[in-house]
Amino acid sequence: MRRRSRSSRWAVGLFAGLTGLVAAHAACAETVLRARLASDIVSTEPGGKRDANTDDVLAHVVEGLVAYRENGEIAPMLAKGWTVSPDGRTYTFALRTGVVFHNGQPMTAADVVWSIRRYLQPATRWRCAAEFGPQGIARVLSVTAPDPQTVVLTLDRPAPLLLKTLARPDCGQTGILHPDSVGPGGAWRGPIGTGPFKVGAWKRNQYVDLIRFPGYQALPGPRDGDTGGKHALVDRVRFMIIPDSSAARAALLRGSLDVIDSLSPTELGGVQGDKRVRLQFAPTADMWLMMLQTRDPLLADPRLRRAIALSLDTAALTRAVTWGTSRPDSSPVPAISPYFTPLHAQLRKPDLAQARRLAAAAGYRGQPIRITTNRRYPQMFDAAVLIQAMARRAGIRFQIDTVDWAGEVQRYSAGDYQALVFSYSVRLDPAMDFALLIGDKSRDPRKVWDSPRAAALLQKAVVSDDRAVRQAAFDDLQRAFLDEAPAVMLFNATRISAVRANVSGFKEWPAEQQRLWDVGFCGRAAC
Amino acid sequence: MLSYIARRVLLALPTLMLVALAVFFLIRLIPGDPAVVMLGEGADKAAVAALHRELGLDRPLPAQFLTWIAHVLRGDLGQSISTGEPVAGLILQRFRLTAMVVLAAVSLATLIAIAAGMVAAWRRDTSIDLAVVGASTLVLAIPSFWLALVLLLVFGLKLGWLPFVGYVPFAEDAVQAALFLVLPILTLTITESGVLTRMMRSSAIEVMRLEYVTHARAKGLSETTVLRRHVFPNAFAPTLTLVGLTLGHLLGGIAVIETVFTLPGLGRLMVESILARDYPVVQGCLLFTACVYIAVNLVVDLCYPLFDPRVAAA
Question: What backbone phi and psi angles, to 5 degrees, belong to A491?
């Protein structure tokens, strides 16, 4: 009896010890969230050498004065607020207090001034430098810091799009950096930002690690686009470079990966209905379109361009190309925009008889039209094939010319195409969407719509921040766009993401940007 | 022997020069501007022009070529346009992994081919022969990416025995690294064993028809001895040539397998560099691949006399 009681005590002690060890291990175990990137990031320099993946990763590391909210409006981020002078040329930003950089230094107005001046230097090759040049929204005359918590930005003319431009993800959100981010000669060292994560190891073509920044000062309130309360709920985020989408899907199902942002629609079948995975579908503000070269001798006639547009059933094309996940759109104003009124929602219906009449009136005699596409984005190739098939019904002949992505970008940049299937990444203001299209082709050959009428309408939308004035401008632009048909809008894509069932807090948003702050793992309770 | 090696190396120099010329100019014929790829589709024209200047892409092509070749002759393959890393270091780093996978897979495939090919030839027109020929034909017909995905789904996903994404280098965790390499090596072994087996079998059948084999049997030697001592060395020589060609070809990169299994090898580096128009890396990779090809074939040629003494005599 005595021996039994002693052995019981041993057993209880052993159990308690093991439980303690397990609990201690659980308490000490690092939490790692693993997300997929289809290709490696280009650099760690915000808004410099970049692509969409680079923007996504660095959005966790750096923050700008202002940022986009979920609904596309602008809200403060590192700025507490701002005022605009009556002439619209001077912006005064009051900075938040208590914000510290990843190196522990407090953020001051001097750092903001240094960062903005650095972005504006040609040597930085900032993606958005041209926006602040002669052809851009305005030129920056000065950036000053009258006191440690105030920054004053003076422009040469009013620029209502200033804040929306500064907050653009592809501009690196004009992230505020500590001067130690660069070396003595101005060479890039690495981002010392203020975001909830800092850059850890970067093994090229394998993974990029982001480490939780314990000193992060979160804004109050919930997460809202790129602003709002941001919280690092895991110790480390690992972006794993997995080029093959089937391998990524298998890794998610196996549990070797926690998040696939931007799942290809073709991979949907493999995960739909699987209890280990949750899916999210979020409409985005990107633009998929077919551009038509208005300077091409054949396509210079707007009647032929309209005929092409009328030969296409964009609803059917969108269903086929996106596997029924996205919505067709005939307007450059994205469907999620507050400016997307019933006028923009009107889908151009196919009308083969009218298409034939217009083509004949334009003198079209079945000459082949070369349509450039690529296989890097399967939707672009599929769209070209369907455009070819649909236009043939109206007697319009397309010849598909498949090149690789770099080749297509070069043709786009040089305007060297007759027709080209393309997509623009997200712009969260319709004026920015139209600005991508409208412009003088002799100065900038990549512009699609070279029309003084359109340029004047765009100018109205750019210089005004009055909602009604802007709406009227966008409505007039849409009518002109349908009439002149410099391009045929196809659809706004829906972003599909797949996350493991034990991942909590993941939410897509229209900016097509992977956000892993406020994302963690569920406890024992169900997610 | 040394003079033979020296002669071969000297003969390789014009080949390498031709490769360098072709690589340099052909990559530039492909449409696509590295500066535009780097800066993105909406990049400012002035920024693109500045990057051209910085990368030396605004200079005439012959001048660019001469500068590059002068650096190459000094052992400097330049720097990656995309990442700024030295190309030589990048290639060597990636080649280590590719070489590991390829050498292991080709060695295994050769062993399988020797065993299966010899047995099939020895038991010609029996069910064993039929099975070997059928299996090797099937393996030849299967695309490597499909086989890779099937193995990944079966052993990685369904059975969960092996990891398949997130490669860990040997320096970090040798066991994990080895486990990661099992599926790529298995895929490559299976795909390469088909053609080697067929070659081994047909060579062995031809040798078995020769009179000296009949003579060996007539002397009363056992079948094992006849096969091992008289058939195998002569039958293996053509297979060895094929092994050399396969090695040279695969060491240049196994892009498909590296992509499916997310291995940071030479093939993926080359594909990504072509897509990014990273000229120095593409040029460096192709020149390196040509050197490897020449070196592997030289080694194979030097190994020939081990199996066929007539070559040494010649």
Answer: -160, 165
Chain B partners of A127 at a C-beta cutoff of 8 Å? Answer: 39-40, 42-43
- Residue A444 identity: D
What are the b/e assignments for B213-237, b being 16+ CB within 10 Å?
Answer: beebeeeebeeeebbeebbbebbbb
Where in A325-394 does DSSP place strands (E)? 327-328, 369-373
For A470-521, write each residue's pLDDT tens digit: 999 999 999 999 999 999 999 999 999 999 999 999 999 988 899 999 999 9
Vertex B99, ends B93 and B105: CA angle to 5°? 150
> Where do the DSSP E strands lie in A225-368?
227-228, 236-241, 259-260, 277-283, 287-292, 327-328
Instruction: Please state, in angstroms and rounded to a whole number, the distance separating the CA atoms of residues B129 and B283.
Output: 45
Q: Do A243 and B38 touch (CB under 8 A)?
A: no
Tens of pLDDT, residues A83-141: 999 999 999 999 999 999 999 999 999 999 999 999 999 888 898 998 898 778 899 99
* Separation of CA B209 from chain center: 33
Q: Give the residues across from A152 on adjacent strands.
A: A92, A144
B43/A247 CB distance under 8 A: no
DSSP string, B186-202: HHHHHHHHHHHHHHHHH
pLDDT tens for A198-226 read 999 998 888 999 999 999 999 999 999 99
State the DSSP code for A285.
Answer: -
Q: Which of A49, A253, A413 sits opposite B157 (nearest CB)?
A: A253
Q: Tell me, what DSSP letter sits at residue B230?
A: I
**Nearest chain A Cα distance for residue B39, angstroms:** 6
Percentage of chain A modeled with pLDDT above 90:
75
**DSSP letter, residue A151:** E
> What does the H/E/C string look like for A198-259?
EEEEEECCCEEEEEECCCCCCCCCCEECCEECCCCCCCEEEEEECCCHHHHHHHHHHCCCCE
Q: Which residues of B touch A254 (CB under 8 A)?
A: 156-157, 160, 164
Q: Hey, where are the domains in chain B?
A: 2-73, 87-313
d(CA A500, CA A327): 26
CB contact under 8 A, B39 and A125: yes
Which residues, given as ranges, of chain B have pLDDT below 70?
Answer: 41-42, 309-314
Interface of B with A (CB under 8 A): 30-34, 36-47, 50-51, 82-83, 85, 149, 152-153, 156-157, 160, 163-167, 259-262, 264, 268-269, 272, 275-277
Question: What's the CATH class of domain B87-313?
Answer: mainly alpha
